[in-house]
Amino acid sequence: MRGALRRIVGGERGISLAELLMGASIAVATLALVVTWISTTSGVDMNQEADFDALNELRFAKSQIERELRFADGLLTAASPNSVEVWIDLDGNGAGPDSAGERVTWSIVSSQLQRYVDGASASAQILLDDVDEAASELSVAGSTVTITLTVGVDQGRTTSTRTLKTRVNVRNA
Predict the structure, then answer these.
(1) Are residues 59 and 124 in the same domain?
(2) d(Cα 33, Cα 21) in Å, to the nearest integer?
(3) Same-domain pairing of 54 and 33
(4) Which of 27, 29, 33, 55 is most deeply packed, by most CB within 10 A?
(5) Would you say residue 121 lies in a domain?
(6) 114-166, pLDDT tens digit by residue?
(7) How many folded domains does the chain comprise?
């Protein structure tokens, strides 16, 4: 390094091959550190975004079920640990379900949270994909429905889970 400084100050031109290699290796090492740092922070951002998206989907699905169950006019059945059926008095006659669209079923089927109207699979509305069926359930005790929804979140090399759990009282049951 002193030789390079003497040459620059003393008016000599050029640098030696060893000095060139040393400078290039320092530049490559610095560049490698910067690229590693950028890719690491980018991966963390993508993981956080996946978590955020999964939680938003869970919150949306939970709010849809809660709203419908809370204002249902009656609890019909708990067909299985992953299904609950309610009736909504659309025609206002106090008897039901006696009109089209009054029977609503929420089910966890094939890794999806689905909403059916009048038991018709053609009416299935998918509210949530990637549901972990083993960890999710819609259970009924009296007029209280316990909702547990768990989804898998892809974290690149691993998959983590996010869970929301709530209890809803069917007011008119």
Answers:
(1) yes
(2) 18
(3) no
(4) 55
(5) yes
(6) 888 887 777 788 888 788 888 888 888 877 888 888 888 777 777 788 888 88
(7) 2
